[in-house]
């Protein structure tokens, strides 16, 4: 009976708000975002994206700084990719954790940035920023990117997707990297192309929704964490399989 009620409640809820329709990325490669809008740094300073870019490519990650789902995992995956390739924030590009919730301010951005630096102390001190802004300034950037997200007032969550935008120094959208953790070589190639003004491409589109709700409990359910555990297990199995294959092949070719 409870399961039936849950299914009925979920059907009514999705009929009113479908996060899979509300959130996504429209194909707008070559579009140019405004670089002169005013945003707030984690320390409260007023900055612009153009000033932060300072002639370098922008690696921009739309996030909620107080995210109940996977934004922190997305930033962690990007930090891991950065550590595994040659380009560095501050020297080769500017990394921006771009807050999409206008209710957040410098305090939330500072906490988000502190969590990232605590988890990855080797990240450079320069070239990494966490921003917040007004709804108008935020929408000017996300609309130009074709990045769609929506607020569900009944549960107090944004539906949005996990992705990283790679922009040329002039704000031209050159590439999207999708999912929780971009491949290091894909990140390096995308930033190099943006720096040289070469046209990017869509790559493999796998949109991972950062949103979940259980209509029966009124809380975030286990779907996202089950997915993350599954992905982690697949990665581990794939790595183990590759190691086993390498050892087996080495025995075959050993003189």
From TrEMBL:
PROSITE patterns assigned to the protein according to its UniProt record, in alphabetical order: THIOREDOXIN_2
Chain segments annotated as transmembrane: 223-248
SUPFAM superfamilies: Thioredoxin-like
Keywords: Copper, Membrane, Signal, Transmembrane, Transmembrane helix
Signal sequence, start to end: 1-22
Pfam families: SCO1-SenC
InterPro entries, alphabetized: SCO1/SenC, Thioredoxin-like_sf, Thioredoxin_domain
Keyword 4Fe-4S: no
Start and end residues of each Thioredoxin domain: 27-196
Family: Belongs to the SCO1/2 family.
Protein name stated in the entry: Protein SCO1/2
């Amino acid at each position: 009976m409870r399961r039936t009620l849950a299914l009925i409640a979920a059907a009514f809820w999705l009929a009113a708000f479908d996060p899979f329709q509300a959130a996504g990325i429209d194909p707008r490669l070559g579009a140019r975002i405004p670089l002169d809008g005013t945003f707030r740094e984690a320390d409260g300073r007023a900055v612009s994206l153009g000033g932060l870019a300072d002639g370098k490519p922008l690696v921009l990650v739309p996030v909620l700084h107080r995210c109940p789902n996977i934004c922190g995992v997305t930033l962690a995956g990007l930090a891991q990719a950065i550590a595994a390739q040659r380009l560095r924030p501050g020297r080769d590009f500017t990394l921006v954790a771009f807050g999409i919730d206008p209710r957040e301010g410098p305090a939330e951005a500072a906490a988000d940035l502190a969590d990232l630096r605590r988890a990855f102390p080797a990240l450079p001190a320069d070239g990494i920023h966490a921003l917040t802004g007004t709804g108008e300034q935020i929408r000017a950037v996300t609309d130009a990117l074709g990045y769609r997200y929506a607020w569900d007032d009944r549960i107090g969550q944004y539906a949005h997707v996990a992705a990283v935008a790679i922009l040329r120094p002039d704000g031209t959208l050159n590439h999207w990297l999708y999912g929780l953790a971009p491949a290091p070589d894909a990140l390096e190639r995308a930033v190099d192309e943006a720096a040289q003004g070469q046209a990017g491409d869509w790559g493999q589109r796998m949109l991972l929704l950062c949103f979940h709700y259980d209509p029966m409990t009124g809380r975030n359910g286990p779907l996202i964490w089950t997915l993350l555990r599954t992905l982690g297990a697949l990665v581990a199995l794939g790595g183990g399989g590759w190691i086993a294959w390498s050892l087996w092949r080495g025995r075959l070719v050993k003189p």
